[in-house]
Design brief:
heterodimer; A: mainly alpha; 0% strand; B: mainly alpha; globular
């Protein structure tokens, strides 16, 4: 297992390098100047701009610039935000916990919804429950999160006036009051994101369980006298989970898409909404760093998914 | 629905053997019709396409006629879908925007499928180092967080594209290319898998034995047989592309307000939810229904094109 872990860890490095290379190529191919904001500012004389260009090495050949960029990225030296004049890393570190909290809880909610519903649907295929569940799953992943988010705000915040629709990082209360306020404001973004992910996941779980449930070894488990619940839990679900974990890891890039949208709708102060505001204010260092952070997170979660995969299916680590 | 037991297969297979030979299209159509939801999706989708294609010729209200006396009106006879904050007629804007949303969806899908098929075909046919390299690139692109990189590309190339081709065409081309460019990976993997299994089949071997060149083998013999899953993936990709375009417009990084796609209308509506909910509900529902119908259609096609599935 530890050997597999090290091998898998080593695969992540070229993946990350590849992604960073793509990112940098896009940036380098782009017309215009990352210092366009300075260029259009009349207070900055042309000599200063030229000095800045040499200082930041913008006139060097692209491979040199890439190597310099990636080393400073890895060292955590992410530069200054043009818009807010703070270190980009400070800015991101302030925002990251909120994003991870919302994403993690939403994903947990998705799994909690999808697992029981998917398994129960597959155990009784084409029953009434299954038909209702599959229809809802279908509707669920056809509903764009930005629309469900607006509908939730319309119903729960405006019509019923139960929940606040603006998420605040510092609520100003303490103790249980803080927990209560936090829950109230986090319910809508987490539900919107969680239900969307859950709908997709339900379909995965259902088809994975459906593949396994008719196999001979399941009948063997039943005929040796195991109760139905035990058979499903210990023999069907554990094996069906293996492809589900793979699909979960493939879903991770999509999860970040959902995060950007929900953060924007509910004004959650996470890195997704920071990305949008940075783009709208032409803040290149922040934009590049956030996308880099997203990529690192994707690779990291793929790693975690693969390790879970190896734990669920011991055959994997012996390859 | 098929339960997949042996008895079902035998029962369903028996009359099929007696039926006179039918063409592939006829068979797919017969099987597709059995899928009630897919038929529903197809009919609804045809209605939507017809409405946005013909609608603006019948309903001749201009999309940008500003009338402050009639702003934020709820649906009425004069304005069947109400008006927005400038008093512009929402039905006219919805019909116009639907054209763009659907066109972006189809065009982006075509790009994705073309690139994906090409990459998959080359990888599957040549094998070896080329295959390996192409698949690594595909995996790399799959691992990139989609929306952030789309936003980055739009952010970096937006101004120069508008300058080069004008605001409407430039943005349209950029958005289509960008959305199409993120959809090719699954298609490439699908096509490659099909190639790997098909190129070893007897009929391809026969063609090879008769002296068919690789190009002819691919185009005449392998590709037509690999098409089924590609059609399904392509139809589902239209839905994904429409969603992405709406997302970009919703985030304010797609089309500008004077080109009212469904996502753009929704974005403008979101700050007026408390007093003009109709403004958001119509475009949102339009996106939802279109995507749902395409997904049903794709599901039906998947079942109809899968020869192993008994319908």
């Amino acid at each position: 297992m530890s050997k597999y872990f090290i091998r898998r860890l080593l695969i992540s490095i070229p993946a990350l390098l590849g992604i960073s290379l793509v990112l940098f190529t896009v940036l380098a191919l782009a017309p215009g100047d990352p210092f366009e904001e300075l260029a259009t500012n009349p207070n900055v004389p042309p000599e200063v701009r030229a000095n800045l260009r040499t200082q930041f090495g913008l006139d060097d050949p692209i491979p040199v610039r890439y190597v310099r960029w990636i080393t400073s990225m890895v060292k955590g030296d992410w530069g200054f935000s043009f818009a807010s004049r703070v270190n980009v890393s400070t800015l991101i570190m302030q925002r990251l916990p909120t994003t991870l909290f919302v994403l993690g809880t939403a994903q947990l909610l998705a799994i909690l919804v999808a697992l029981p519903i998917g398994v129960y649907s597959a155990v009784r295929p084409y029953s009434l429950f299954d038909q209702i569940a599959t229809s809802f799953a279908f509707i669920g992943f056809s509903l764009p999160t930005f629309f469900t988010g607006l509908l939730f705000i319309l119903f729960f915040s405006i019509y019923l006036d139960w929940l606040p629709f603006i998420y605040r990082a510092d609520i100003g209360t303490t103790g249980w009051r803080w927990v209560w306020d936090m829950t109230r404001q986090a319910i809508m973004p987490i539900t919107v994101l969680g239900l969307f992910q859950g709908a997709t996941l339900t379909r995965f779980v259902r088809s994975a369980v459906l593949d396994v449930v008719r196999l001979d070894y399941v009948n063997t488990a039943r005929s040796k006298g195991l109760s139905e619940g035990m058979t499903i839990l210990k023999h069907v679900v554990r094996n069906a989970l293996i492809p589900v974990v793979t699909l979960l890891s493939l879903q991770i890039p999509t999860v970040f898409t959902g995060a950007v949208i929900t953060e924007q709708i509910f004004r959650v102060p996470g890195i997704g909404s920071l990305l949008i505001s940075a783009i709208l204010s032409n803040d290149t260092p922040v934009v590049m760093s956030i996308i880099f952070v997203f990529s690192v997170l994707v690779v990291l979660f793929a790693l975690i998914a693969d390790l879970t995969y190896a734990w669920l299916d011991p055959r994997i680590s012996y390859r | 629905m098929a339960n997949g037991t042996t008895a079902d297969v035998l029962l369903a297979g028996a009359p099929a053997a007696k039926r006179p030979a039918e063409s592939l299209t006829a068979e797919v159509w017969r099987r597709f019709r059995r899928h009630r939801l897919a038929m529903f999706g197809a009919v609804m989708l045809a209605t939507i396409v017809f409405a946005v294609a013909v609608g603006p010729f019948i309903y001749r209200v201009p999309i940008n006629e500003i009338d402050f006396k009639a702003k934020l009106k709820t649906p009425s006879w004069a304005h069947p879908m109400g008006t927005d904050d400038l008093g512009q007629d929402l039905l006219a804007r919805m019909l116009y925007g639907g054209r763009i949303s659907l066109a972006v969806g189809v065009a982006a899908m075509l790009i994705g499928v073309t690139v994906g098929t090409a990459v998959g075909a080359v990888a599957g046919q040549t094998g070896g180092a080329v295959d390996n390299a192409l698949m690594r690139v595909t995996e790399l692109f799959l691992a990139i967080p989609q929306l952030p990189i789309l936003l980055l590309v739009v952010y970096l190339f937006r101004n120069s594209m508008t300058k080069a081709m004008g605001p409407e065409l430039g943005l349209f081309v950029m958005i289509v290319v960008v959305i199409g460019g993120r959809g090719w990976m699954p298609v490439a993997r699908l096509v490659r898998a099909q190639f790997l299994s098909l190129r070893e089949k007897e009929f391809v071997e026969a063609a090879r034995g008769l002296g068919a060149r690789p190009f002819r083998q691919i185009v005449r013999h392998i590709l037509p047989n690999a098409l089924g899953p590609v059609i399904v993936a392509g139809s589902l990709d239209v839905a994904a592309a429409i969603l992405l375009e709406s997302t970009l417009s919703f985030l304010g990084l797609g089309f500008p307000p004077d080109i009212p796609t469904w996502g753009r209308i929704l974005a403008d509506a979101k700050d007026n939810l408390d007093f003009a909910p109709h403004w958001a509900i119509f475009p949102g529902t339009a996106i939802f229904v279109t995507v749902l119908c395409i997904n049903y259609l794709g599901d039906g096609l998947r079942d109809a094109l899968d020869p192993r599935k008994v319908l």
